[in-house]
Design brief:
This protein is α/β, with parallel strands linked by helices. Helix content is about 35%, strand content about 20%. Helix 9 links the parallel strand 11 and strand 12. The chain is globular. It binds 2-aminohexanedioic acid (UN1). The site of 2-aminohexanedioic acid (UN1) has 11 residues, from loops.
Amino acid sequence: HAQGVFQRLGLSPDPTSSETPGVYHGSWGGRGALVDSINPANGELLARVRQASAEDTEDTLVAAREAYKQWRTVPAPRRGLVLQDIGRALEEKRDDLGAVVSLEMGKIKSEGRGEVQEIIDIVGYAVGLSRSIGGSVFPSERPNHFITEVANPLGVVGVISAFNFPTAVYGWNLSLSLVNGNATIWKPAPTTSLCAIATTKIIASVLESHKLPGALSALVCGGGEVGQALVDDKRVDLLSFTGSEARGKIVGQQVQARFGKSLLELGGNNAAIVLPDANMALALPSIAFAALGTAGQRCTTTRRLFLHSSIADSFLASLVAAYKSTASRIGDPLAEGTLIGPVHAQDGVNRYLAAIEQIKKDGGEILVGGKRAEVDAALSKGNWVEPTIVKVANGGRGFKMMQEETFAPILYVSTFETLEEAIELNNGVAQGLSSALFTQDLSNALKWIGPEGSDTGIVNVNGSTSGAEIGAPFGGNKSTGWGRESGGDAWKQYARWASCTLNWSNEVALAQGVNFSV
Ligand code: UN1
């Protein structure tokens, strides 16, 4: 299966006999280290990727700036036509690219395909923008003056993305970058290089067919050194970073130190709250998806669940039963019926196991899960863990593990008495990405989305914390980094804005009534 997919995407079908170039800026190459791409479900080698050397990164920066100079003069609606072709090309390859996401990242088939769909959707959004981006016109206080905001292309956008969404988050950035007239340089997570190469090949084929420089969608596969080069380089005008809070805090400061622009998409520690008046038949599957989906490795994963004390026991019993019923549906991400794939890396298993140890020490009660998962012999070299529910007392106040994001399927559950208390618990962590309230009462819902409500960047009522649509801005507050990507006004960050005042009279007129005749 994998071989057919690889062939159709122009990837090498035999990892043992050939290496895969991981650098693209119009042509493919790479002179850095060779890194293995491993299938997290069974430990098999998928590819050996030649990463970027320091010279490759330099060459790419030069090529991307050149490409930007050409692209910035292309009218936005024409950029839209190129994006439209990119959307079509992705649509043609959606299932194959989705399968590569499953093979290399480990997410299940529909989620792999869904991730590619996210790119197709945001590309469509950018096509629409290509006929509407621009600024406002403002009334001038002076006669015969005209004031408008102009959105010019910004330059080169660097994208450093994480393993958990190995193509979609890049897609969000690429689409908005391209429609604004910029070039983009992508540094993916080293363990999902193949997803990045396959995606770039699709986009590059469209750029090349339009006789445009491939460096508009440049790729530098590599590790920390390659990322650091983009962070430090003044030729990267906007650096869009997805990753941990610890890393993002440093990245943000380093980009700021050279007065660059950064867009940070850092940790989430998302809560769902169930009130007694909730539609439980809706709440249960919504929460199960958000907690279990992608094996707990979305930024938007539900990690904390607060149940009203009057419904806590019955809800929890149903949730534990749902978790137990998924035990038989852990396995090969590409097999029909699988709901839970592996965690992405061995490292993730270790972090999960370390978290479980700490939870036990701190007095958390494990209701289900808590160890490595049993799977078929064919998958024994994969990274398998059991989805876990931990019951904690006192709303989890003072329970240290609940304050941080462990990128694994671990859900903490506690109870509350009033909506105000639940909101306080929801807001009582450093992170502020996504949250969800389950209620049928309008005043509860409005309080939740209002000034005294949830402080996260994404706020849901009767829906999952994860699985946001592309049309709205995506991002989080507080230590999540305040960045906004994808829909809404996020595109404005990819432009170089100027407020332009044009005097079309023959008079000197100073603002604020200042008189200065010489
Ligand atoms: C991420 O986990 O980094 O809302 C992105 C969601 C997806 C994107 C998640 N649309 O879960």
